[in-house]
Amino acid sequence: MRLIRSRIHYWSCSKFANWIRGENKPVALEWGEWGKWREKQKKERPFRYWLSDTLLNRLQNIIYFPYDLYETIRIYIRNRYIDKIHYLKTGLVPGRYYDFDYRIIHALFNELVDFVESELAASMKWGSNKKYEFKNGRCVEAAYDYFKSIEKNFDDARIKAATEPKTSSFRAGLMDDYETSMNDLNRSSKIKELYEWWKYVRPQRKNPYDNDNLGDIEDILDNKKFKEKEKLYEKVRILEQEYDYEDTKMLIELIKIRNHLWT
């Protein structure tokens, strides 16, 4: 079990560390700039940098060790025995046999529903003043408010980009915001589409065998209207193929967006 060190505030980023270092640590830098900044500090003030960014972090790790150990054990127990995130939950009835292809689609889409109603919904706890009622860690209302918030962000970015004068120095940044929000909207819309298909659309499918005129195999063989029933079974076969095609199509769509299914 690897020790988890969760830090909201690092001592090396404190005002005290800035005083020891003799220079304020940047809040954020562009990709690749952090390495240059560290090298600059090591070159200009090696001992003070070691005190502020190495020694302080080591002391923090020592003092926080009991808390880190407690959090590591708590998170392990929750992940292992409560959330059980080491395997995919199918949502199928226990004790029955299901073919592998059937388990695949149920596992992936059941986890998608859990992702939408749990993880995306939970993000609204901090992004909204609205009080949500979560049951078993899920809230459909909060999930839909999340989708609405993504749509609103896109509308706001689109309006700002459209109204900003072309000569404005802020326009480039606004266009970047617009493109980012548009990509977020596209991803969010696809997640919502797949979620609603699995939860609301697919369950409304008509059972291909829900027809009293079909009968069983012996009935078909003994019946003089064999040709007529053969046509009925052909319709069943075609409908099953259509369902299978749709399931495969939606599974592929889900796999395509798998890199965006995180919070």
Overview in brief:
By secondary structure, the protein is mostly helical. The protein is built from ten helices and no strands.
Describe the structure.
It is a single chain. This protein is mostly helical and about 260 residues long. The chain folds into two domains: about 10-80, no CATH class; about 85-260, no CATH class. The protein contains ten helices and no strands. It has helices at about 15-20, 35-45, 45-65, 65-80, 100-120, 125, 140-165, 170-200, 215-220, 225-255. Helix 5 (about 100-120) crosses helix 8. The longest helix is centred in the C-terminal third of the chain and has 31 residues, at about 170-200. The radius of gyration is 28 Å and the shape is elongated. The protein starts with 14 loop residues before the first helix and ends in a 7-residue tail after the last helix. The model has no long low-confidence stretch (mean pLDDT about 90).
